[in-house]
Design a protein that fits this description.
alpha+beta, seven-stranded mixed beta sheet, two-stranded antiparallel ribbon, 19 helices, globular
Length: 569
């Protein structure tokens, strides 16, 4: 029987990373839960085995329920009835299957009914579910909104809402509006305090809200009258049980049809303040969005994997000119690049998730104990910085690779790939949104730009180059090392020229050079530890990185500020 986890040992490989011991020890707090909760691990090895069991269950559900339902969900989609969103028929089956499997509240502490899983494992679950149905992954993975409520809400709110999410209730984050997309400072949904009822009331419209008729919403709204910027925005919790929000429209989209995208009208809807006023955008949405961006990176890797699977399967079956097309250089070149991007992108995803896990666990300890040791404070600072730097790389590059792999899967299928009966067309349609929502790739470049120009990535790369690799991988590492002086050279010239418009113009190329070098070093490290899984991808990906970096180097090197006029419309 198929299993979307165990069929791909490359996923489980990332549970063996050296940082996992520190992550699990921090997450489990000396394994104190074992005395109270029968399913809690007693030591590190027990925790890893527990993660594997959960992943195996998820892989089974994904392969044998979610994937077989995916075509029906894509064709039916959600619909609107009397101001309520109704999921596609098979989506209800998917939700029930994941509930029965205990796959909700996975990141939450056990005292609230959660599984206390680290972000690495949650990302693996997201990847596996996305490979089966990227649209359903949206519905399922939005449970991670509860992390923001856990971090910034009151204990009363935690007790009230977290057990409901752990039991399988759904969530959404209601941020964007008709006039506030990427520029969330323009949010104008109005929040006013009702003195009589001792609650907040929300009025206005939200647009493009994924899973918008969910049970529990986190809502960005303007609480400070007379303000026009981010300092007047706060975060609120809306409970669907209280009423006051209707679905006005469900968008008809190119892809991810099973994931309802709603326009909502708030009419005096009762809500609770989450955290403090004025920090909604400045602090809480930033935390919410970073988690969502890592979720899209995992969603992207899942589609990268499934696109590769579909292309490989078809190439092995399809015969032309008297032989299987997988024997044609043009075809196996495409497949090898798809696999290399998948493996390198996955490595970047899980490296980022590990950084997030360490700093989030330390923050959690700090919230409870009010103090960290000097060493822990340094560790918190280090991994917060690494997570902030790696998140825009993981989201941006993987969302682009998902699009590229889906495109190539159709190319391998030839004319059949353009026919609706083949899955590759759906993967292509689904993938297109990944580089748009939760921050376009252009916005990921903006988020990464300060780490490029201040030398953060360069210092990370130089530190990575100091790591040991196997003898077989040393020639590849040397080739990657040869790219660094070119990267450092053009970076130095851009900084010295001090022309902001030119810096912004070439930022995407610097971003891709940064990611290419970092992912090359990550996949080389993976191939050192598991050559049977990653040696081929390391060879292919380094060649890809060399070609990309060389092109970007010469473009930036020869680009003059006056050349900008040629590009302006």
């Amino acid at each position: 029987m198929a299993n979307y986890y165990s069929d791909h040992p490359e996923i489980g490989f990332h549970l063996n990373h050296p940082l996992m011991k520190r992550i699990v020890d921090l997450k489990e707090r000396n394994y104190a839960d074992a005395a109270t909760y029968p399913d809690a691990p007693i030591d590190y090895e027990d925790a890893i085995e527990n993660y594997k069991r959960i992943l195996d269950i998820t892989g089974d559900v994904a392969a044998n329920i979610l994937e077989p339902n995916s075509e029906s969900v894509d064709l039916e989609g959600p619909h609107l009835e009397n101001g309520r969103m109704i999921y596609a028929s098979k989506t209800f089956e998917n939700i029930e299957a994941t509930r029965k499997a205990g796959l909700h509240g996975v990141s939450m502490p056990r005292r609230y009914g959660g599984l206390n899983l680290p972000n690495v494992t949650f990302s693996m679950l997201s990847e596996v579910i996305s490979a089966a149905d990227a649209g359903f992954q949206n519905i399922w993975s939005l449970q991670s909104c509860i992390d923001t409520l856990y971090e910034f809400g009151s204990e009363e709110q935690r007790q009230k809402y977290i057990p409901r999410v752990c039991a399988g209730e759904t969530m959404s984050m209601d941020l964007t509006e008709p006039d506030a997309g990427s520029d969330l400072q323009r949010v104008m949904l109005k929040a006013t305090f009702d003195e009589k009822e001792n609650c907040w009331r929300l009025n206005g419209v939200k647009r493009f809200i994924t899973n918008g008729d969910s049970d529990i919403h986190l809502v960005l709204a303007r609480s400070e009258e007379g303000t026009r910027d981010g300092r007047g925005l706060s975060m609120f919790i809306y409970d669907k049980r209280n009423g006051g929000v209707d679905v006005r429209h469900i968008e008809h989209k190119l892809g991810i049809h099973g994931s309802p995208t709603c326009e909502l009208t708030y009419k005096n809807a009762k809500a609770e303040l989450c955290g403090s006023t004025r920090l909604g955008l400045i602090k809480y949405v930033m935390a919410l969005m970073n988690g969502a961006r890592l979720g899209i990176a995992a969603q992207s890797v899942g589609v990268e994997q499934e696109a590769y699977n579909e292309g490989l399967k078809y190439a092995k079956e399809r015969a032309q000119f008297g032989q299987k097309i997988i024997g044609f250089p043009a075809v196996y070149d495409m497949l090898s690049r798809m696999k290399a991007k998948l493996d390198a992108g996955r490595s970047l995803l899980y490296q980022t998730a590990r950084y997030v896990d360490i700093y989030k666990a330390l923050e959690d300890i700090q919230r409870e104990t009010k103090q960290l040791t000097a060493e822990e404070r340094q560790e918190l600072k280090k991994y917060t910085r690494l997570a902030d730097a790696f998140t825009p790389l993981a989201k941006g590059m993987n969302s682009e690779y998902a699009n590229q792999n889906a495109y190539d899967a159709i190319s391998i299928h030839g004319g059949s790939g353009f026919i609706m009966e083949y899955k590759s067309q759906r993967l292509y349609r689904d993938a297109r949104i990944f580089s748009i929502y939760e921050g376009t790739t252009q916005l990921q470049v903006v988020a990464a730009q300060r780490y490029i120009t201040n030398g953060t990535y360069l210092s990370i790369i130089k530190e990575m180059l100091e790591g040991e690799v196997s003898d077989e991988m040393k020639p590849l590492k040397d080739r990657v090392a040869a790219l660094v002086p070119q990267y450092e050279e053009v970076l130095g010239e851009i900084k010295a020229e001090n022309n902001q418009e030119k810096t912004d113009f070439v930022a995407r190329r610097l971003y891709e050079m940064t990611a290419d070098i970092i992912m090359s070093l990550l996949i080389i490290d993976d191939a050192t530890r598991a050559p049977e899984l990653f040696a081929k991808s390391a060879q292919v990906y380094v060649r890809h990185a060399e070609a990309e970096c060389c092109g970007h180097y010469h473009f930036i090197k020869n680009f003059k500020a006056e050349d900008l006029e040629s590009y302006r419309a």
